[in-house]
C-alpha cells in the first residue's frame, strides 16, 4: 500500500512577481506529473500573479 506522501507530495509555489512569497500545497503526481502553475494572490505585490512550482 502506498504511503500518503508518495501520491500527494508537498510542493512549494513561488511567486513569478519576484517578491519571494510562497504558498505550500499538495499535488497529485498521477494527474499532474509536470510542474504546477496556479494564479493566486501575492500580498507583497498586492495583485494576482502566477505561482509556479519550485523544487
From TrEMBL:
SUPFAM superfamilies xrefs: Zn-binding ribosomal proteins
A Gene Ontology molecular function term of the record: structural constituent of ribosome
Keywords: Ribonucleoprotein, Ribosomal protein
InterPro entries xrefs: Ribosomal_bL33, Ribosomal_bL33_CS, Ribosomal_bL33_sf, Ribosomal_zn-bd
Domain of life from the UniProt record: Bacteria
Database matches in Pfam families: Ribosomal_L33
This protein's record includes keyword Ribosomal protein: yes
GO CC list: cytosolic large ribosomal subunit
Signal sequence bounds: none
GO biological process, alphabetically ordered: translation
Family assignment from sequence similarity: Belongs to the bacterial ribosomal protein bL33 family.
The protein, known as: Large ribosomal subunit protein bL33
Species, as recorded: Raineyella fluvialis
Amino acid at each position: 500500500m502506498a504511503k500518503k506522501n508518495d501520491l500527494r507530495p508537498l510542493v512549494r509555489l513561488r511567486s513569478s512577481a519576484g517578491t519571494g512569497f510562497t504558498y505550500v500545497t499538495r499535488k497529485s503526481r498521477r494527474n499532474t506529473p509536470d510542474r504546477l502553475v496556479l494564479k493566486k494572490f501575492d500580498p507583497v505585490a498586492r495583485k494576482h500573479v502566477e505561482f509556479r512550482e519550485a523544487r
